[in-house]
Fold this sequence. Notes:
Chain A is mainly alpha-helical and about 325 residues long. Chain A has 14 helices and no strands. Chain A has helices at about 1-35, 50-60, 75-90, 110-115, 120-130, 135-165, 170-175, 180-185, 185-200, 210-215, 225-245, 250-255, 260-280, 285-315. The radius of gyration of chain A is 19 Å and the shape is globular. Chain B has about 160 residues and is an alpha/beta fold. Chain B has helices spanning about 5-15, 40-50, 105-115, and strands at about 20-25, 30-35, 55-60, 65-75, 80-90, 95, 120. Chain B contains three helices and seven strands; from the N terminus they run H-E-E-H-E-E-E-E-H-E. In chain B, strands 1-2-5-4-3 form a five-stranded mixed beta sheet, covered by helices on one side. In chain B, strands 6-7 form a two-stranded parallel ribbon. In chain B, about 40% of the residues are buried. Chain C has one domain: Cytochrome-c3 Hydrogenase, chain B (Orthogonal Bundle), CATH 1.10.645. In chain C, helix 6 (about 125-150) packs antiparallel against helix 7 (about 170-195). At the B-C interface, strand 3 and helix 3 of B face strand 6, strand 7 and strand 8 of C.
Amino acid sequence: MRSYLFGVLWGFAAAILIALTALFGVWWERKVAGRMQMRFGPQQAGPAGVLQTLADTVKLVVKEDITPNLADVPVFKLMPYLVFVPSASAFAVIPFANGWAPFNTEASALFFLAVPGMGALGMLLAGWASHNTYGSLGGVRAAAQLVSYELPRTLSVLSLVVLAGTTSAVGIRGAWQWWWIVVLAPAFAVYFISSIAEVNRGPFDLPEAESELVAGYFVDYSGIRWAIFMMVEYSGIVAASLFGAATFLGGGLGIPGPLGVLLFVAFTVAFTTMMIWVKWSFPRLRPDQLMSFAWKVLTPVALVQLLVAGVVSAL
Amino acid sequence: MTTTFAATMASIAEKFKSAVLADSDGVADACIRVEREELLGLATELAAKGFDQLEMVTAVDYRDRIGLIYRLVSATLSASLVVRCDLPAEQPRVVSLAGIWPAADSQEREVLDLFGVAFDGHPCPKRIFLPDDFCGHPLRKDFESPTLIRRPDLI
Amino acid sequence: MPDQEFNQELVVNVGPQHPSTHGVGRILLNLDGDIVRKAELIIGHLHRGIEKMAENRTYLQVVPLTDRLDYVGSMYANWAYCRAVEKAAAIDVPERAEYLRVIVCEMQRIASHMMSVGSSGADSGAFTVFVYAFDLRERIVELFEQLCGARLTYSYVRPGGVAFDAPDGWADAVLAEMRKLPTGLEELDKLLFGNVIARGRLKGVGIMSTEQAIAWGATGPVARGSGVALDIRRQDAYSVYPRIGFDVVVGDNGDAYDRARCRLLECFESVRIIEQAITQMPEGPILTDGIPRLIAPPKGDAYARIESARGTLGVYTVSDGGAKPYRVHFRSPAFCNVSLISRLAPSHVLSDLGVILGSLDPVFGEVDR
């Protein structure tokens, strides 16, 4: 009984944390994108517009939750949660500190890769259930894209696993050596690029391509359900950045104490900013270019990297 | 008018018995009037003589007749030509030139829509601007509609 | 379930409210998987019957209507219409007015092309390009505002001249802006056409051969992208263009990339033209004296065409001798160019549709009229 209560409390705290990261992520993106585009971004709500996303959230919560007439209502209403829960559960296994993650198992690195991938199912069904051609096309695109980019992403993390000799994310962080930065640089590049694709961000935002599919799989969602899809995207960015900083850079370069924490936060913010930077710099890929990039560039690079990691760990 | 262009025009005017060659009428370098039976033959001949660009197709409602206007441009002859073809005001019907100049496709549909000229052999003889169930052809001078409020004639 | 059920083509309705239709165009697509098999263009959502309205107005009252045709480049329709009226009524135009018309129309070309180049970025997902292009457009529009008080619907060109003379210091402000503009244009060139993904998205998409461009009635940058050296400024040598040196930019492959890049490179030529025109511009009147308020051209037809940002913009007027035009027709380049979408889109994927449509640069005010 006590452990259940504890779990509920943990879950509540985690939900607030994820909501806060999404709030921060949206604000940060709007600020960075604004600066890139010769404008200021949000300015009015709070200092430097930091409360703008909060105001937007309030607006979205009180907005009408529209369900299309021909939608498959139970599926339509449920899907935002099916996308959100796997994405949020990724936070559970991120090693936030040396030797500590909220949920530590032997296979936590694999958990991080596998469980958020379940979101593809939710996106596919969300698009399908809304009975909309754009929605269906977006859902199918999301499924194809997430499955394709899952492979190079997993392979890139496998290189880490080979060097660390453990599939636990906490273990990887503990085993981190400075020379991994050099050896695993290609793996990190593959991880970073495929993470952008996994969270459906530009230039890989085909499932929600605004100029083609209007909003893709969530085209018919409004109000809070739409906000949940947005939250998934931003929490996905932050989760990928956190995990990248915690494993590929050993948290704060393996340095203990406040400096390490500071470095860890700095790396996370830097990766998040890079994802925003990439999105606002590049046009979107075409579906065939997207697929050939995953299968002809990223996957071979990740495989060679895996081989290199194997050889290095055997030496 | 260059000599080659003038010679081309003269040869065409000879070949088609209804074709009347006139000088510039403010629209192009030369003007040919033709009966609608000979329009297709004339158009084929003109396309073969180097008039490869169909710039404009439009019509004017002269109340007693509908005047079709084709403006052609030739880069090789560096000249422009206007072909005029009069149609009866009642149920105007003419052959489509979209097979010769694909540029005529959408412009003929516009004339169909706004003047009610039927184009035989057009690939898609449908209204282009107005809804399919629209009654009447607005650019006809006798167009009346309950939603059309005429401005008082102040001048 | 029988196999037929699975072989059906998916019908997708794009527009009239869709982010990449540039207004209120609508395209009905038949998709085979992701590949477009048939694209039917449905237009007319913005049809206001401007040609019919013009028959009920005096010649001068039609000028504000021409603003509403191509609302991204209003100066062109103003000028083309006024040229037709001047031809019909045999009105002379003072030299200074001709120079002012050339200057504003070339500025308009930059402003209009910036909208188009920016949206070829936005259509392929690079929204930042759009914002950068709009910055350049904004500088031109502000100069227009100083000149005639309007930012979009200018009614600046009038039969017999222009509405206002350039205010004090305006010519210098334009010159100063023209010196700064190429830097911004080069930056935009690098940002969009230098980007590897943008090249991948734009190159080889919507290819139109030279013969097709001529036969299908393409004009302007759409034709020039396919290698047709069709420029009315050169061919008709109207106004004071014969006295000004400029090059006609022509593409090689006839794809979306060439069409978009042609527009950007034309802006550099426009900068050259404006600089020459300002230095050549004489002092003098800007409007011919003695033009009656009710212009009544003699009975007959008139046709005038100019090179607008979208192509050959022709105006055909018929006068019955009265003070109101008997018939006004606008030969709209955007209408002729956008009709090509149903010929260019098939066999491309859905993602390319927006890119092809954007490369044809439709402005639906002028398409639907």
